Amino acid sequence: MTEDFYCEEVLSGKTAVNKVMETENVLAYYHTKPFYPVHIVAIPKKHISSLITLQDEDNELLMELFDVIRKVAATVTEENGACRVITNIGNYQDSKHLHWHIVFGKPLR
């Protein structure tokens, strides 16, 4: 996997994705290799490497990102009765681009 799959593959258009929601600064789409029966990823279109590297000037973008996450999570919960919203940091984070997983169901693998 590349260091930043989201910028290098998804946002560049090299990897096609099934979009769930898109705003000017945020993209939510179905994971290309899902770990759950419902597995959606939400990312900022601006490169931010991690939750812990956010800067004060990212606050407006973060609010837009969380608004998309909230709406997607509400839809997944309405359709399935529940969901999880997850992010990873440090060595748990495969792609060094801030992203959130909105998931439902038992892990597929």
Helix content: 25-40%
- Kindly name the structural category: alpha+beta
Distance between the termini: 18 Å
Strand order of the largest sheet: 1-2-3-5-4
At a glance:
The chain is α+β, with helices and mostly antiparallel strands and 109 residues long. It contains two helices and five strands; from the N terminus they run H-E-E-E-H-E-E. It has a five-stranded antiparallel beta sheet, with helices on one face.
Task: Give the SSE layout.
Elements (H helix, E strand, L loop, with lengths): L4 H7 L7 E4 L3 E5 L7 E7 L14 H22 L3 E3 L13 E5 L5
Antiparallel strand pairs: 1-2, 2-3, 3-5, 4-5
Fold and architecture overview:
The protein has 2 helices and 5 strands. With 109 residues, it is α+β, with helices and mostly antiparallel strands. The model has no long low-confidence stretch (mean pLDDT 94).
Tags for this model:
109 residues, alpha+beta, 5-stranded antiparallel beta sheet, 2 helices, 27% helix, 22% strand, globular
